[in-house]
Write a structure and sequence with these properties.
The chain is α+β, with helices and mostly antiparallel strands. The protein is 26% helix and 22% strand. Bound molecules: adenosine monophosphate. Adenosine monophosphate binds at residues 6, 15, 17, 29, 31-33, 41, 88, 94-97.
Length: 116
């Protein structure tokens, strides 16, 4: 837990979130500013800055985040038509919250991967 980390504070219950899935080690909640009809963030409860540092420090936990994201996609009815799973990483990747999170995006065609 990092006191000044927004997502650690959500894990601690200090900031409300619409939780859609939880395991012992992961939490999934709706993005506060959704970019698609379904937009859920999946995080490890433990603080890791980004997906690279998570994968290096605890590859098992990285796998649990991916498994939780797959469960969320299934629960949200995204498996048939597909969805996008995204980890923004660092400044050029557009990362704004430095507690690793997978974006699960779907519910409509999402268009090209990058704006042109
Ligand atoms: P990123 O740009 O990849 O770091 O994504 C951060 C995401 O966190 C953005 O899509 C925000 O809309 C989302 N976000 C910020 N604050 C909250 C919050 N309190 N609850 C849920 N999602 C949030």
């Amino acid at each position: 837990m990092t006191n000044d980390c927004l997502f650690c504070r959500i894990v601690a219950g200090e900031i409300p979130a619409t939780v859609v899935h939880e395991t012992e080690t992961t939490l999934a909640f709706r993005d506060i500013s959704p970019k698609a009809p379904v937009h859920v963030l999946v995080i490890p409860k433990a603080h890791h800055v980004d997906v690279a540092s998570l994968a290096q420090a605890d590859p098992g936990l990285a796998g649990e985040v991916l498994a939780a994201a797959a469960t969320v996609a299934d629960n949200e009815g995204l498996l048939l038509d597909g969805y996008r799973l995204m980890f923004n990483t660092g400044r050029n990747g557009g990362q704004e919250v430095f507690h690793v999170h997978a974006h699960v995006l779907g519910g409509a065609p999402l268009g090209p991967m990058l704006a042109r």
